[in-house]
Amino acid sequence: MAIKNGTAIGISIHFMAFWRPAEREGIAMDIAQLIADRSSSDIITCNPQSPVRDAIAMLAGKRIGALPVVENGKVAGIFSERDVIYRMAKEDSSCLEKCVGEVMTAPAITVESSTRVDHALGLMTKRRIRHLPVVDGDVMRGFISIGDLVKSRMDEVEHEAAAMRDYIQTA
């Protein structure tokens, strides 16, 4: 570490090697680690033929913002609060009588379980979405929200800060 006028201006190579091993220390760096303790059978879904009114009741009843729409075992789209709002603005309450397949966002933007958390966050930010189905091949493995990813990232940052404090205290 270089010192200039009594202030540290660099970090040694040894510290940097110590600082970035988060993946080796069990921090959820990819989606697979994030969803490892979840069962795909617990994912609440609907199908394209479901009435919009029923899908809205599911969203409200479970206090969730979106549902993956599954047809023949594959993700066909996403039905979200935004879909309802946009349709209500265009069509008034007549959209409540439609099928989810007519209102959903399709095709769904998905990630694989090997996707890194930071990449998924970037994708959500760029595409202005808040939910992603996790799909490997044609099989949905999970359904994540931006809140899941932010929490994971915050846990990672807290872990890195603790590692940095430990390093500084033992240096």
Name the CATH class.
Alpha Beta
Structural class: alpha+beta
> What is the distance, rounded to the nearest whole angstrom, between the alpha carbons of the first and last residues?
11 Å
Counted by DSSP, the helix tally is 7
Shape: elongated
Radius of gyration: 21 Å
Give the total of domains.
1
On the 0 to 100 scale, the average pLDDT is 84
Fill in the CATH topology.
Answer: CBS-domain
Q: Give the strand order of the largest sheet, numbering strands 1, 2, ... along the chain.
A: 1-2
- Known CATH architecture: Roll
Summarize the helix and strand pattern as letters: EEHHHEEHHHEEH
Share of helical residues: 40-55%
Number of strand elements:
6
- Unreliable stretches, pLDDT < 50, 5 or more residues? 1-28
CATH superfamily: CBS-domain
Strand content: 15-25%
Main beta-sheet strand count, sense and barrel state:
2 strands, antiparallel
Structural features, described:
The protein is of the alpha+beta class and 171 residues long. The protein has helices at residues 13-19, 31-35, 52-62, 81-91, 100-103, 117-127, 146-170, and strands spanning 3-4, 7-8, 66-71, 74-80, 131-136, 139-145. The protein has one domain (25-170): CBS-domain (Roll). The strands form three sheets. Strands 1-2 form a two-stranded antiparallel sheet. Helix 6 (117-127) crosses helix 7 (146-170). The model is unreliable at 1-28 (pLDDT under 50).
